[in-house]
Amino acid sequence: MSLFNLKGKKPVPVCLCKKAPEDKTAADGTAKAAGNGCIKVLGAGCKSCRQQYENVKKAIEAAGLDVQAEYITDMPLVMQYGVMSMPAIVINETVAASGRVLKPSEVKQLLKEAGLLG
């Protein structure tokens, strides 16, 4: 028995930006340029979660991305990602980090690893 009864199920995309993650490869197999993505901070509304949201916004601004970060505190939506510790960062519907507040430089590294930065 799984905790949230999600065994074998993928989380339902709940992206409020209404943008589906794009395929990162062109028809000829080469990588596409970094484009818009969907970035979310999942939290309970506590001080640490709000700080993580601010750090994500700073990282996005420092990277010069045209992306809006979302701050989600609705627990049923948070639970769809299977996150057990907050704050958590979700990039393109994949949990990238959870359980601690990351510095803006660490968030920028996550964005790079997710392919949003060139």
Task: Describe the protein's architecture and organization.
This protein is of the alpha+beta class and 118 residues long. It contains 3 helices and 4 strands, in the order βαβαββα. A hairpin with a 2-residue loop joins β3 and β4. α1 packs across α3. The radius of gyration is 15 Å and the shape is globular. The model is unreliable at 12-35 (pLDDT under 50).
Topology (SSEs and partners):
Layout: E1 39-42, H1 47-63, E2 69-72, H2 75-79, E3 88-91, E4 94-98, H3 104-113
Parallel strand pairs: 1-2
Antiparallel strand pairs: 1-3, 3-4
Quick structural gist:
This protein is of the alpha+beta class.
Low-confidence stretches: 12-35
Coarse structural class: alpha+beta
Helix content: 25-40%
The gyration radius over C-alpha positions equals 15 Å
Distance between the termini: 41 Å
Mass-distribution shape: globular
Q: Counting H and I runs of at least 4 residues, what is the number of helices?
A: 3
Q: Mind describing the biggest β-sheet?
A: 4 strands, mixed
% residues in beta strands: 5-15%
Q: Give me the count of strands.
A: 4
What is the H/E string?
Answer: EHEHEEH
Strands in their spatial order, largest beta sheet? 2-1-3-4
Q: Report the mean per-residue pLDDT as an integer.
A: 79
